[in-house]
Amino acid sequence: MASTQIAKSFLQAIQHRRTIYALSKKEILPEEEIIKYIRAFVKEAPSAFNVQSSRVVVLFGAQHDNYWGQIVPAALRAVAGEGAVEASKQKLAGFQAGTGTILFFEDMNLIKGQQEAFPQYAAGFPVWSSHSSGMAQIYVWSGLESLGYGANLQHYGGLTGETLKAEYKLPDSYAIQSEMVFGYPEQPAGEKEYMADHERVIAYGHSA
Ligand SMILES: Cc1cc2nc3c(=O)[nH]c(=O)nc-3n(C[C@H](O)[C@H](O)[C@H](O)COP(=O)(O)O)c2cc1C
């Protein structure tokens, strides 16, 4: 394939990626197939010094339902009371209506190891760890949408990270970054405003 063809396909894939909230559990691919793709997307995401610190837990079925139906409401209740649970009820039900949730973690033991090995960059490694997680997230998000799924990105992990680690017996060094909900897209994404390209990207030294 000519490289421009690959570039066009890549552009199409990233243009297709949007935040989709209206999700259902209608099957697109078997779960095993979804896991295979997510593994491949995460595998290809770059990381600082190739540390490969991103860790992913995929929740399906009862585990996914339990996260949005029990774990998140309980965590919200504990910090902000029943009113906060009530106010979020519809939103959380929308997430639960999806097929699955992808939990993104970073293994901070590896980041600590980098800091010890290269003290001159110590302050940079946690930042690059976040960047790497974002890269894994965008691969998975775009990849899933290329497969026909809709997805959205959530951040309840500050409230639920410790519970998740206990529930799934994950290492204490895992730091949760985000939760990506995916499912069958029942409605398209909403309108999105874009800034002018030239305000975001400028070039110097080109001939045109
Ligand atoms: C780093 C990051 C954090 C985000 N956090 C949330 C979030 O907590 N909840 C949410 O509903 N959307 C979240 N989003 C989705 C953004 O609101 C969305 O990507 C943005 O409005 C652009 O819309 P699009 O995804 O359809 O292109 C986040 C996106 C990014 C990149």
UniProtKB/TrEMBL annotation:
InterPro entries (UniProt xref): Frm2/Hbn1, Nitroreductase, Nitroreductase-like
Any one GO MF annotation of this record: oxidoreductase activity
Chief location category: cytoplasm
Pfam families registered for this protein in UniProt = Nitroreductase
Q: Where in the cell is it found?
A: Cytoplasm; Nucleus
Listed under GO biological process in this entry are: cellular response to oxidative stress
Q: Which UniProt keywords apply?
A: Cytoplasm, Nucleus, Oxidoreductase
Residue span, Nitroreductase domain: 14-184
Q: Name one GO cellular component term.
A: cytoplasm
State which residue ranges cross the membrane: none
**Superkingdom assignment:** Eukaryota
Similarity annotation: Belongs to the nitroreductase family.
Query: What is the official name of this protein in its record?
Result: Nitroreductase domain-containing protein
Q: Which organism is it from?
A: Malassezia equina
Q: What is the lineage of its organism?
A: Eukaryota, Fungi, Dikarya, Basidiomycota, Ustilaginomycotina
